[in-house]
Structures are given as structure tokens and as C-alpha cells.
Design goal:
The protein contains three helices and four strands. By secondary structure, the chain is α+β, with helices and mostly antiparallel strands. It has one domain: 2-Layer Sandwich (Alpha-Beta Plaits). Strands 2-3-1-4 form a four-stranded antiparallel β-sheet. The chain is globular.
């Protein structure tokens, strides 16, 4: 399995936060499914100094980059134009049980 770190910055236009909130439930439901499949490791929302949601950070694992990209193409925050800039890096996460 390949592991990926994702840092995604939201669009900054006037409707960006409304788009995020509108599809947040479907985004979270998808993450729950990925977690049950063993593909979502951890993550959460990024906040600005005022506590406003401005992006996301997460760790995933997929069989390969193609499987990761296939998931990303249907992710609600991508299809609904919530995430504007997405930085993806392959990583090897520390396993404290080893």
C-alpha cells in the first residue's frame, strides 16, 4: 500500500464556504467508508486565525497512485469546487506499534 499526505486549500471566492458546508456531509460519509476499507488514516479541517474553515489535511493509503487518483476524482470537495489547490505527497507514516 502507498500512503499519501494531502494538504488542500479551499477556494477563496465569496461562495467557497457555502459550497464546503453544502457538501460536507457527503464528504464525511465518504471518509467514513474509506476508513472502513482501511484507506483513510487521519485528517481534519484547517482553520484560519478566526477559526474559519479554509482547507483540509489528511493521510490516506491506497494500493497505488491510480487508485488514489480515482477516489480523488469523485471526492465531493473536488467535484463541488471546494478544494482549489491540492498538494499530494507520497509518505511513509510512523507506526508506533512497530
Amino acid at each position: 500500500m502507498k500512503q499519501y499526505a494531502v494538504v488542500a486549500h479551499d477556494y477563496t471566492d465569496e461562495g467557497a464556504l457555502d459550497r464546503r458546508i453544502a457538501c460536507r456531509q457527503s464528504h464525511l460519509e465518504g471518509l467514513r467508508r474509506l476508513y472502513q476499507q482501511g484507506s483513510f488514516i487521519s485528517g481534519g479541517v484547517m482553520l484560519n486565525d478566526d477559526g474559519k474553515m479554509i482547507g483540509s489535511n489528511a493521510h490516506f493509503q491506497f494500493i497505488d497512485r491510480n487508485a488514489f487518483e480515482a477516489w480523488l476524482e469523485q471526492e465531493p470537495y473536488v467535484t463541488q469546487k471546494v478544494w482549489e489547490h491540492i498538494d499530494i505527497r507520497e509518505v511513509k507514516l510512523f507506526d508506533p506499534t512497530v
